[in-house]
Write a sequence for this structure.
């Protein structure tokens, strides 16, 4: 019985994956099209989706493990501004993985209440003189959520293409196909961490 259950968990229904990818697009669109009045609800739904969805929870874990010194980056950004709104300088890392990790950490801190998206991001970094709270949220979604979701979308496309190419006629596909980063290990604060312990052995995608 245990072996049968394990074997079942080693495969995913292709249709379920397709639905999961559509949900990602829908929830992302809800956040990007939100304003100050409905942003919080749409954002919470998206972040909960990242935590609980069987596909995107893997991305959530991988992004959480990328070695990036967020506190140092945030402190440096805070030191660039004066007393005027929009005076702080928004500079993100050039490296894509580090950049995605920074944006994702911001979202986690918004979710936890440590960062106010309207005031700490929209107002402090991007606001103009006559902007209001709706404008502040729009600045946040345009400069944090949008580039984050765009980068994630590229990785989703890579996975979808691999599924279509390698398993065109299969109803069930191996669960280890859902890997957003091809490196099988990630460095976390000078400690080598094997991602197999999170998402199962053999999770590395081989390039054709």
């Amino acid at each position: 019985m245990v072996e049968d259950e394990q074997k079942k968990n080693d495969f995913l229904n292709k249709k379920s994956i397709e639905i999961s990818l559509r949900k990602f697009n829908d929830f992302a669109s809800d956040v990007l099209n939100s304003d100050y009045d409905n942003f919080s609800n749409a954002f919470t739904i998206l972040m909960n989706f990242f935590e609980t969805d069987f596909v995107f929870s893997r991305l959530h874990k991988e992004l959480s493990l990328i070695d990036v010194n967020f506190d140092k980056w945030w402190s440096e950004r805070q030191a660039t501004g004066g007393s005027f709104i929009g005076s702080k300088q928004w500079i993100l890392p050039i490296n894509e993985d580090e950049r995605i990790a920074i944006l994702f950490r911001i979202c986690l801190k918004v979710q936890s209440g440590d960062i106010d998206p309207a005031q700490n991001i929209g107002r402090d970094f991007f606001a103009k003189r006559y902007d209001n709270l709706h404008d502040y949220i729009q600045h946040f979604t345009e400069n944090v959520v949008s580039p984050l979701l765009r980068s994630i979308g590229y990785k989703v496309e890579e996975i979808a293409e691999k599924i279509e190419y390698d398993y065109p006629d299969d109803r069930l596909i191996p669960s280890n196909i859902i890997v957003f980063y091809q490196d099988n290990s990630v460095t976390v604060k000078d400690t080598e961490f094997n991602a197999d312990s999170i998402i199962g052995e053999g999770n590395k995608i081989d390039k054709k």
